[in-house]
Amino acid sequence: MIGVATLREQQVRFAFDQDVARVNRVVRERQLEVVGGVPLDEWVRPSRCPGWSVHDVVRHVAQMNEMVVGVAAAARVGERYRRARRFDPRTTPSEWLAEAPAADPEETLAAYAQSTGAVVEAGGALGADVLVGTPVGLQVWPRMVLHALFDAVVHERDVTEPLGRSAPAIPEQLPVVAYVLLVAARVACAVDREFAVTLEVGGQVLSVSVHGADVEVVPAERNDACVAADPLPLLDGLSGRVPLDEVLAAPDDVRAALGMLARNM
User: Are 12 and 210 in contact (CB under 8 A)?
Assistant: First the structure.
């Protein structure tokens, strides 16, 4: 799962914790169609993840789905999911792939479909105030769901972009992009980078800012300084798949601050 080092205490304002269970369902079900539409004979081809084939990426997403379900089940009984206790997003995914039994694409596709259904069911399993461990520290459950969606959407594009099979953005992906902007802003805040920018992303205008320990990603009014960005290319830029300056025509200080996320993943 995509992650960064645990971040220091910050005062966060984030306006996209609502309706996450529905967002999770719509995005995940659409992903089943997109990934399921990739012919299995193309699964041997390279993905955007260095050293990983399309098949490897789909196996990874299925494993992360299982982890999200495990986190939810453990949290229901007041525990932490044991398998996630030493999870390091830089090394653990490759270790889990190496440890998993060999599988052919048909088996992996079935596991991916089953685990996606389980994650859809788990999306609304916990209350909005329940704290769980995530790759950026303790967060409320809806943000864990959004973090897992961040991972899944980026990896969907890791599979489809090299094959020319990427699907267009849908409105339900905008809370995922807003969440990734939040994580990027929190990374900037952790090293005392202050900035403020108004972004128009897929028709949604957002204020993204860091002032001291205050981090904000909230809806805003369009203004003369508003910077437009396509949601999925912006997600690629924030996650380091493409240079951020190619997809975000923001001032240099804003790109430098938001670009720190990719350098810390």
Answer: no
